[in-house]
Amino acid sequence: MKWTHRLSNKSIRFKLLVGFLLFVIPLQLLLIFDNYYAMRVVSEQVANSNRNLAALYMDQIDRNLEEVDKYLRTTVAFESDLIMLDVPKEVSSDDYYLAKINLFNKLERDINTYKEMDYLFVYSSVNKEMITNQPAGETMDRLKEVREGMVAMLTEREAWPKHAFEQWFPYQLGDDYYISKIQKIGNVYIGGWVKASKLMSPLGLLDMGPEGKSLLVTSSMEPMTGMMPDNKGDDYLQVSTQSEQGQFSLLILIPYSVILEHLPFLQRIWYVVILGALIILPIFYMFLRQNILIPINRIVTVMRRVRDGNLDQRVERHPVSSEFELMNDVFNSMVDQIKALKINVYEEKLLSQQAELKHLQLQINPHFFLNALNTIYNLAQFRNYQLIQDMSDYLIQYMRFMFQNNLKLVAVEDEIAHTRNYLNIQAMRFQDGFTYEIKCESAALMKARIPPLMIQTFVENTIKHAITMDETIALLVDIRLYEGGSSSYLRIVIRDTGQGFTEEALEKWRQEPEAEHHGDRHIGIWNARRRLRLLYQDKAQLELSNHPDGGARVEIRLPLRFEDQP
C-alpha cells in the first residue's frame, strides 16, 4: 500500500518515471521516420533558400539588362546618326564618316554609364561596318576577334524578323559565351554585348560548399559558365531561375553530401542518449529524490505560502547539501528584506526599462536616415558619382557602428570616427551652412574608453536645434586630459555658434537633476545623463551652459579608463 501510494498519478516520482518512458519508447519508433523526414525537410529548406537567392540574383541581372535595353530603344528612337548608316557610304561620304565618329564617341561615353556591359556596338549591314567602344586593357587582336564574332552573329540573324530581337540571347564565340541584345532600325543594328561570366560575378558571395556550382545555362541547359557535373541528377540538388529578359537561366547545384553531412552524426548521438537513459533511470531517480526532490518540495511549500502573502514563513533547517542549505538561507534572507525592497526594486526596474527604451529609440533616427537618402538622391540627379560614393561610405560606416553599439564602452577613436561620419553626412547636406572641427590633445587619449554615442548625442543636438538657413553654424569638439585632485579625467567639450540653450531649459536642468525627461526636446541629453549615472555613479560630470561668445556649450568629465572596467 505504501509503495502504491507513492506511485500514484499525483506523485512527482510517478510522473517522472512514466513521462520518461513515454518519451523514450515513442522516440525509438519515430526515429526512423524522423531520419527520412529530416532529410526531406532540410533539402526543401535549402532548395527554397537557394531558390530565393537565385531569384534575387537573377532579378539583379535582369534589372541591369533592362536598363541597357531601355538605352538601346532610346538610341534607336532619337539618334539621327543611325539614319546615315542605313544608306551606302558612297552617297554622302562626308556625312557618313561624321555619323560614324559621332556614334563612336557616343558609345565610348555611354559605356561608362552601363559598366555591366563589355561592348556597345552599331553595325551597318549595307556598308558591312561595325562600330564599337574600345575597352581599356583589351588587345587589338582580341578586339578584332570580338568584332568579327559580332558581325558573324548579326549575319546569321540578318533575315530574322524584328520581333525576334525582343530578348537577350546567348551566343558562343570560341570557348566563351556572350549575352547580347539587338535593336534594329532598317539595315542598322545597335546592341549590347557582355561576357556571360561577367554576369556571374555577384554570385561569388554564395556559399555552396567546395563542390557546389552556380552556372548560367542556355534554354537547352547548355552551360555558359563553368562545367556541368557528370552526375548532377543523382548527387546534386538543382535550383534554377529563368531570366525574364533573356533566353537563359541561372542554375545552382548543391551536393546532397553538403546538405546532409551532419545528419548521420546526430542520429548516432540520439541512439546513445536513449540507451544511456534506460540504464541510468532507476539509479538517477533514487539520487534525484533524496538530494533534489525532497529539498525542492520543502522550498516550494514555503514559496507558495509566501506567494499567498504570508511573509512570516521560513524554510526549516534539515540535513541537505550545501547548495540547498545556501538556497534556504538566501531565501529566508530575501523574505526578510522583500517588504522594504519591493517598491524600490520595481521603481528601479521601471526607470531602467524606460532609459533603455529611449536609448534604443535614439539609435536610428528615421529623419536623419531619410535626409541622408534624399541627399544621395539629389546628388544622383546631378550624376555627382564621387559625392554619392562618399555619402554612401559615410552612411555605411555610421550604420555599422549603430548596429554594434551594444558595447558598454568604446574607444574614443571609434566614437570620433562614428561622429565624424555623422558630421560629414550633415556637412554634405547643409554645405556652406555648417562646419565642424574635432580636436584631441594627444594620441594616447584616443585609446581611452567612453560610453558609445556619448559625443554623437550632443553633436546631433546641435544639428537638430542650432542649424538654421540664416547663418553658418560652426561646431567644435575638444578632447583633453583633466587633472582633478588625485584622479585623472577625460574632458570633452562640445560647443556650437548657434542660439544656445534657452534659459528655461537650463533652469529645468539645474532644478531637476534626478528627474526623468518626458518632453520631445533634448531627450538625448537627458538620457546621456542617465547613462552616465548608471555607469559611473557620481564620478562623472555633465554641465550644460551657454558660451559667453554665444552658442551652446556642453562639458563632460569622465574617469579616465583604458579598458572596460566594472
Automatic annotation (TrEMBL):
GO cellular component assignments: plasma membrane
One Pfam family hit: HATPase_c
Membrane-spanning ranges: 12-33, 269-288
Record domain HAMP: where: 290-343
Record membrane topology: Multi-pass membrane protein
Keyword terms, alphabetized: Cell membrane, Kinase, Membrane, Phosphoprotein, Transferase, Transmembrane, Transmembrane helix
GO molecular function: phosphorelay sensor kinase activity
SUPFAM superfamilies for this protein: ATPase domain of HSP90 chaperone/DNA topoisomerase II/histidine kinase, HAMP domain-like
SMART domains in UniProt: HAMP (SM00304)
Subcellular location: Cell membrane
Primary location class: membrane
Superkingdom field: Bacteria
Protein name: HAMP domain-containing protein
Organism: Paenibacillus pinisoli
